[in-house]
Design brief:
8 helices; 17% strand
Amino acid sequence: MSDSVNTPEAARPADAEPRTALPSAPGPSARTSRSKGEPRFPDGPRPDPAGSHFERRIRSFQPRRSRVTTGQADALARLWAQWGLDIDGQRVIDLAELFGNAGPVVLEIGFGMGEATAQLAAAAPETGILAVDVHTPGQGNLLNLAEQGGLTNIRVGNGDAIILLREMLTPDSLDGLRVYFPDPWPKKRHHKRRLIQPEFLNLAATRLAPGAIVHCATDWEPYAEQMLEVLTAHPDFENTVPDGGFAPRPAFRPLTRFEGQGLDKGHVVNDLLFRRVPHEST
């Protein structure tokens, strides 16, 4: 996916930044020679699934070029057709058909190498997790983890989560939204790239069912304060903490290596848990 610096439309907000990648398990690189123009993974995720069908705008993710191990490449080749989803914006997804059941579905935007996602899926097998990222090694790693753990409730989305929300999901179709450790874009001139903004919440609210939980976590305190401010001000969400403020770290959210590294450096991790309020009666 290529980054963009165009101005977003008011109703079409910035997209999700994948969590900083965790180191994958050691393994040989899957570098192979191929002719010019030949797809890197013919049976796997496409490099830019939406192509030029949609406007270019400021995005809150940026492409990361990392080596794909042989194991990750093998998982992409074998499992993508079954558990992968290219976000092309050209169709509306039936989530019950995608997961093979009518159970609840949670969207996770940015999953790094997928360790936390796999643990969450194992702990709640009745809940489908649609995990979206643009990091190919992470996609392969999560598919590997899903297969090894027998986790049939994971689907891996490749591409722009905003296009997924706006073009491919139906109203009230999601039972939760997770954004764990997104890129904080610490420089002031880059704050417009942060995912959690009023425009993004406007869009997310249309796809979240009443009662659905938005769960954010970050170890960048200024971004945590911004998240708290915009979520608190948004009329479609209410804080699950009665007196407002940050939530205690919930026991169900796994402690990842990335988070542990931040804690070792003295970072403070803040969780936010907000509920989608019921629709107003007309």
